[in-house]
Amino acid sequence: MDLLLVLATALVAGTVGGVVGTGSSMVLMPVLVVAHGPVQAVPIMAIAAFLGNLGRVLAWRRALDLRLAGAFCATAVPGAMLGVRSLLALPTGVAEAALGLFFLALVPARRLLARRAWRLGPAQLALLGAPLGWLTGIVVSTGPLTVPLFQGAGLQGGALLGTEALASLAVYAAKVGTFRGLGALPADVVAQGLAAGLALMAGSFAGRALVLRLPPAGFRLLVDAMLLASGGSLLWVALR
User: Which of 69, 99, 112, 219 has the fewest CB atoms inside 10 Å of its own CB, making it the most exposed?
Assistant: First the structure.
């Protein structure tokens, strides 16, 4: 029964992530915690997120911006490896509270950047990649940060979803590899992660059909709604 619940939730989560580029972890993680406990839920989610991002890369493979993804990954991948090692050193709730406030602040910040026509380039993405990679190693997901980041580099729609997923794919690979090196990936965790990840991949292709019908303004509103939901949920987790 637990497996069926996880798979059904993962399919919905993959569809959500396939439409707005993130949100899969926020939908799926609570179910994983209930089914497997918080200790096993984090590496299971890391494996599932890797496959979910792979699904988005395959769905939008013709729209990828390899230059922007490569610039971000150059610093984000080593940052994620360091973040996993820092995970146990941080006081409970500190990272979640800081991220929650930052997500909420991103809504007006994104609109200000759009009005002033500021655009991020490869150098700025590489500069921001290290701290975002480190945060990804600590928390379940920083998709609400990386999606607006690549949007600020001028990407929209399928190009945004696919390029952000490609960058996240490399970061999650580093995260999973570090978990494995630390002995935190027993066989049952790998199996659960693969099962949830395949459902996320299927949802990614379902989300693609919705994105193709979505106007740019509607897509931007969905990203804003995702940021507000993410920020509010993280603050609730940190303060409860």
Answer: 112
Share of the chain above pLDDT 90, in %: 30
**Amino acid found at 189:** V
Q: Which residues contact 75 (CB under 8 A, 6 or more apart)?
A: 126, 127, 129, 130, 133
Tens digits of per-residue pLDDT, 8-47? 989 988 887 887 777 787 778 778 877 887 668 878 988 9
| 89 CA to centre of own chain | 22
Domain, as residue range, for 71: 2-239
- The pTM is what? 0.77
Alpha-carbon distances of 97 from 101, 142, 165, 229, rounded to whole Å: 6, 13, 25, 14
**What is the C-alpha R_g of the chain?**
16
Domain count, the chain: 1
Residues 6+ away with beta carbon under 8 Å from 177:
81
Question: What is the Cα–Cα distance from 152 to 176, expressed in whole angstroms?
Answer: 28
Q: What's the farthest any 2 CA atoms get from each other in the chain? A: 51
